[in-house]
Amino acid sequence: MSSLAERVAAQMPAAYDDLATAVAFASIHDDATRTDANRASAAWVAEQFGALGFACEVIDTCDGSQAIVGYRAGPAGSRTVALYSHHDVQPPGDESLWRTPPFGLTKRDGRWYGRGAADCKGNVVAHLTALRALGGEASCNIRVIIEGSEEAGGEGLDDLVRRRPELFDADLILIGDTGNIEVGVPTLTTSLRGVVNVRVEVRALAGAVHSGQFGGAAPDAMAALIALLATLRDADGNTVIDGLEHSQTWTGAPYPADRFRTDAGVLPGVDVLGSGTPADMCWARPAVSVIGMDAPSIASCAAAVIPSAAALLNLRIPPGVDPQQAYDALAAHLRARLGWRCELTVTADAMGAPFAPATDGPGYTALTAAMREAYDGADVVHSGQGGSIPLCTVLSGAVPTAEIALLGVEEPQCAIHAANESVDPEEIRRTALTEAILLSRY
Fold this sequence. Notes:
Layout: H1 2-10, H2 12-24, H3 35-50, E1 55-60, E2 66-72, E3 80-86, E4 106-108, E5 111-113, H4 121-134, E6 141-147, H5 155-163, E7 172-176, E8 187-192, E9 194-203, E10 209-210, H6 211-214, H7 221-230, H8 257-264, H9 278-284, E11 287-294, E12 304-305, E13 308-317, H10 323-337, E14 343-352, H11 362-374, E15 381-385, H12 391-398, E16 403-407, E17 422-423, H13 425-441
Helix pairs in contact: 1-4, 1-13, 2-4, 4-13, 5-12, 11-13
């Protein structure tokens, strides 16, 4: 192990260069102006794995994204490990909020900053670093699976898995798109919440009317919507949707409230929500968030009663909850609670199933041992993640005998999907070392 650790450490300057090149590709799948960047990113990924002996194929998928799949044979009769990540990224958002350019990797305060530095190009680089350190000493066959539209839903790779499952056949699939509960704490994610996005529209008037002339008796669609949305939470902040259980508890690693406050940036004096622990609330229970509203801005509004209003709800559901049943419960709750007999439209916008992998197979045993060794004997903990990775359920259906494990470089300080995303290079090094140890012995 000491030799592998030294070889991984020696690769870290190259890992920085790799990540700097990868981050420079503004590979935002949903942005039509970035088509060339997406294709260049895919070509670069294929070139890097190809140089390590993988027979790589860049596949144009059904959603227009480029997926890279590759294979390198190991000893005859050996098991197969698949390494997954994605090379597409979130848009940078308001670039004035970034301290440094989002598509230029920058070192600052011991971290590396740039869009995709953690999610998920940092994980691609961790795979590359492990393989470079390992050299020709792999004890198993290895597949690589790098998709190009995960941040936009991953429809392209999901379709490819269903059409060509042989490209994904493996004994153990490592999903490099999560991370540790905090820097330096070895963590495997064993629970992913599913997602149900729902559009809600309330209509009350044929058109806007003067608030001085009609306000008071005229039904206000915005007020009706606000009152309706308020029924989705109780006074403690628990999500309370009729027909959905909301008292589940988390049995894995704890998430101390003080650390949660820091990670989430909760302002001093503001409550952390819920009657359960942060781990219960974030990993084990349903949680609804209002992520968008169609309403006049303060700058452009008039003194008028609003005739219609809409909101987009994001409902996260824990393993054991069916997305369709969750949608049905939410829709029924909204219809039952709307006031003033306003008109209501509820539409499902997107759904993704939750996922909980089995953790008692030989792959998990070997991975846990490798991770413990890479982290100098520290115990490996299990965490949940509020985010969704629908690919996991697709893969479990297409390759039912495969063990699926989730790990990576994305600890809470990374600020993924936000301005000033960053990665701790030690998380890349430890993740790469974990994978190198596993691939040398499994």
